[in-house]
Every structure is written in structure tokens, then in C-alpha cells.
What we know:
Layout: H1 3-9, H2 12-29, H3 36-43, H4 52-77, H5 88-97, H6 101-136, H7 139-156, H8 161-175, E1 178-179, E2 186-187, H9 201-219, H10 236-245, H11 247-262, H12 267-281, H13 294-317, H14 324-336, H15 344-347, H16 349-383, H17 386-405, H18 408-426, H19 431-458, H20 461-466, H21 469-503
Antiparallel strand pairs: 1-2
Helix pairs in contact: 1-16, 2-4, 2-16, 3-4, 3-14, 4-5, 4-6, 4-13, 4-14, 4-16, 5-6, 5-13, 6-10, 6-11, 6-13, 6-16, 7-8, 7-12, 7-19, 7-21, 8-19, 9-17, 9-18, 9-19, 11-12, 11-13, 12-13, 17-18
Protein name: DUF112 domain-containing protein
Keywords: Membrane, Transmembrane, Transmembrane helix
Organism: Hoeflea phototrophica (strain DSM 17068 / NCIMB 14078 / DFL-43)
Amino acid sequence: xxxxxxxxxxxxxxxxxxxxxxxxxxxxGSIPGLSATMxxxxxxxxxxxxxxxxxxxxxxxxxxxxxxxxxxxxxxxNTPGTPSAIATTFDGYPMAKRGDGDLAVAIACYASVxxxxxxxxxxxxxxxxxxxxxxxxxxxxxxxxSIFGLSLIASLSxxxxxxxxxxxxxxxxxxxxxxxxxxADIRLTFGSSTMIGGIEVVGALIGLYCIPVLIDLVxxxxxxxxxxxxxxxxxxxxxxxxxxxxxxxLVRSSIIGTVIGILPGAGGSVAGLVAYSEAKRTAKPHQKxxxxxxxxxMATESANNATVGGGFIPTLVLGIPGTPxxxxxxxxxxxxxxxxxxxxxxxxxxxxxxxxxGLFIATILMLPTGLLIGRYAYKTIVTIPKTILVPxxxxxxxxxxxxxxxxxxDVIIMIVLGSVGWVLSRFGFAASPIVLGLILGxxxxxxxxxxxxxxxxxxxxMGMFFGRPISLAIIAFTILSLLYPxxxxxxxxxxxxxxxxxxx
Length: 504
């Protein structure tokens, strides 16, 4: 790690590749269905003729840009462009509805840059020691981690917690459709060959989030988003002041995202939800999460972008992809002849450090390009008539869903789930618990079955599930997240009683 590697990253070619990657990734990530994984996979072939460091810089820039790009549709359309932007919809869309969509876009950009820089810094300084964290996680730790994620439904549910838990259970049920993770049993297909492949997560996400919005757009005569005093530019100065005031939340959420990114398979969606839940748990009395709170956007966007750098740690040091896009990038590395592993930072240190500096540069470039693209995206979404907006978004959802597996059945499932989601929303059931159950269900099932098999084979079943230190720590956090809403409601009730007594 020296100035020579930094100089290599700052060559005109690598700067141009970083800029192109950020722009392309942001645009692709903003389209529902075209996830970060797809953005990276589509552009992998053009890297085969490049030098390894340049190829890595391009793919890393596309990845980080796509993660940020998902915030646009999450804020302006209530539809996560990527799964990692699920929690961005909680406060981003309410801000847009009240006329602060431009501010929300600016806040998301600042948070994404901070998260990306902290994740890249962890990759630069802590890669070898932090990689041991990933090795310490076995099947039972992933089981408890997924249960911890499911327990967040209680704290994320605004309104009726029971309805949130019911939605999570419905998502778990949907995750069981098709071939079982371990045993390969065929379940809940009702004799349909179409359902053997299961319910694709991104398609389900598009349907549950986007279709209800499209139905409401058609059903209501009002404008999609509130606009006061014409269309303004993105409020980058005001967003910078808000981000600076909440710098502790940004750093904490970025660290959460980095740590979760290190865990193979967890990804930005889990990181964003955990960071959002922690921000909500430590919120001040005047903060109303779920109603357009800027700290909610900052928590999830900084966390999901920090997973980019965090996910590269096990990918480069252990050869274990931290997230699905990392798996695609790992394949591109193997084609380039780069062998990952503990010795990579010694034998191939020049390539790795040039890439890390390039990731820093791409993240910094995301600030001006993100604000610029966000400005025009906001103006377009706000001013475009519904007669154009609805068909355009509907077309993108269909194309995005079809492109994932080239299956028209996925499109039909997406539309059906979206219609079901709209009906459920009329009765107070939110889409987020359903999606969370659908994402975490396979992780929980695989971890449970594998841990059961290992525990049964070793004759230590209870020790396998309840005798490992990391598992016990995750169980403690799970219990805390389940009990916290109860403590919070009792505390609020006690404060109201004290205020009533003081008024008397």
C-alpha cells in the first residue's frame, strides 16, 4: 500500500472507468428489478480485456452506484430499486409525499457516500483481521441472525405489531414454495410446474411495493407527489447540514453495514433494516420514524452502501462472496487469473490496493454525479403526468421482473402478489414484513437444517443451538429487539400519566 497504487488508481483510464461505472450503476439501480447483481453481471464481459485492477475498479463502481441508485425509486415511487433500499421507503416516500423528495434524495446521497467511504476504509485497514469474523459464523449463527432479522418486524411495524408478525409469517410461507433448500423436497406447488422454481425475491419485492402504488396512482386524481412553489433543485446544502447534525447515526449505521457485509449471504437488505431499527431504538422523542424522518434514510442508505466495502473483505481474503454481486465479481477475478485468499494482499497487493483506492475514488465521484442525477430524476418524476408515469413504471416493472430469470411466470407471480399486497394494505398489513420474511426464510431454513444435522451427528444438539458464544449474543439482541417495543410503549404511557398529573 503506497503512493504508487494511489497513482495507478488516479490514471485517466481508471478515473473514466470509475465515473462510467458510478453513472451506469446509479441508472440501472434506480430501475425496479434491475438490481446491483444484474448491473454487475451485465457488464462483466467488457472487463475481460482490461487489466485486473481496472476491471475491479469498474465493477466496484457499478456495484456502489447501483446500491445508491435504488434510493431514487424508493423515495420517489415507494418502490425499492434494489432489495437493499427496502428500509429507505419507510421515511423516504413520506418525505416525498409532503414535498421534501428533493431533500430526501440529497440526504440519501450524502449517507451513501459516507457509508461507502467507511466500508472502503474498513477494507483498506482491517481486511485480514475482520475476515476471521466471517469464518466464525456457522449454520447456527446464520439461523439466529435470520431470526434476529425477523424479530425486527416487531420494532419496524408501525401500528399493529400483530399484523406485522402475521405479514412476516406470510413471507416465510412464501419462501417455502418450490424446492427445499437442503432436502430438495417439492413443497406448496399444488401440482404446478411453474411454482417449482419458487418465488423470486426481487420480482416479489417489485410486486408488493410497486403494484399497489400504481393502483393508487390510477385510483386517485391528486398529483403523485406534493409540489410547492414550483419544482426546486435538489437541496444539497440543507441535506449536508442535516447529515452533519446526525453524523453519529451515519457512522454507527456505516459500521453496522460493514460488519453485516462481512457475513456471507447477509447483504444490504439485512444491514439496512438492522441499522434502521437501531436508529429508531435510539431516537429522540420528537423524531417520528415512518413519517418522514431524515435519520431513517441516513441509517439505511449509509448501512447498505457500507456493505460494498464490507462484502469485499471475505471475497478477497477468503474467496467467500459476501453478497451476490461479490460472487459475480469473484468470477470475473478468476477469469482474470487473480486467485483470492489470505496471501492475496501479499502476492497481488498492487492489484488489490489499486482497486481499494479506486473504490474510494468511485465513492467520492458518487457525490456530484448522485446529486446531479437525483436532481433530474426528481424533476422528472414530479412533473411527469400520470398518463405517462404509470405506463412507464408499469413497463419497467414487467421488464425488470422478466429479465431476472427470463420467465413470464415471474411476471404473473409479481402481478398477483402486487394485487394481494394492495388488498392487504387496505386492512393495515404492510409489505415490508412480508418481504423480510421472504428474504430471511431460506437463510433460516438452511441454517436450521444444517445445524440440526451437525448437532445430531455429534450428539450435542442443544449445545449446537445454544452453546456457542456468538449465537448467545445474537439471541440476546433478538430478545432485546422483541421486548423493546413493549418497554417503549410503557415508557410513553408513563410519561403521559406524569404529564396529566402535573397538569392537575
